[in-house]
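Researcher: Next entry in the queue.
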Amino acid sequence: MQVATAHYDFLNYIDLNRWNSCYHQITETLALNPQSVLIVGKGDKVVETILSKQNLNVTTFDFDETLQPDILGDVTNIRKILENSIQKRGGKFDVLLCCQVLEHVPYENFENILQQLQSIAKNVILSIPYSSVKYYLHMRLPIVKEIKMQFCIHKFWSRHKFDGQHFWEIGFAGYPKRRIIKDIKKFFHIKKQFLAENNPYHLFFVLQFKI
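Model: Structure for this entry, 211 residues:
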């Protein structure tokens, strides 16, 4: 589902929580020591700009031509669209970054998209909205210094309603985290998963190609 270009205006789009999510997108990408990165979902260009300044070969993919991506296309058909590009490159991208994108596509496309991503990149970083009731415990003590604990309760009693942008979100009835993890594991090894500490609405997965 296309998002209006004005949605990505800096003052409207970026707040402290989203900055935190951008930070994780950048640091998790750099931790994989890539040379080439494909960003699916161009967004506001913040992550793209910073990664490009790290001397990485960054390519962007989006279906909104007003965002001027390097490659224009629909994620549900991404493998075919990128086929020639990958052949010219001589292989897969080192990292594919796909954050806050797949919820804009009906869930029945989820597995098919994952299978396509598997053929495009060696490593994939996903973030997906995680709607739940969250509780935090954060204490600073003289000896142990700091304790952080987080509890999440799925909204299993509530069904997600299409809001014009998101077809689904983890945590709602029908979309428990275990289902999403099970589907991801059909195609990838999950190297890491975590909630962005200051933006727990974003659940991150760092995935590796499954042979």
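Model: The mean pLDDT is 86.
Researcher: Noted, moving on.
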